[in-house]
Amino acid sequence: MIASYTCTTLDCPDHDALSGFYAKVLGWNVVHRDDNVAYLANDAGLKLGFQKVDNFAAPVWPKGEIPQQFHLDLEAKDLAAAEKELLAAGAVKAEYQPGGDYWVVFLDPAGHPFCIAPPMN
Known about the structure:
Blueprint: E1 8-12, H1 15-26, E2 29-33, E3 37-41, E4 47-52, E5 72-75, H2 79-89, E6 92-93, E7 104-107, E8 113-117
């Protein structure tokens, strides 16, 4: 092994706002915050970071000049309830939905696509 995985960090225009959105979605806590970054963590030590970027340009889903490059896959037992809560928290349901009834694609407040699906048993 050369290195160990620590965290995925999303570029965004407002690290406080986006970390607040994902803290609400995931139920994780802010474990570090400064003028440029914020990090969330769960009880198992998983981390998700948010880095403030000047002149941030959101990815365009599904195809566009600025590709998504990566996305987060999240699970929810009740997709309908999760959708209502995500929309209330500031997410937008993506117009293009590639997964039929399984995956539901949303855009976070900074425009990053992420998917919600039932647990993969």
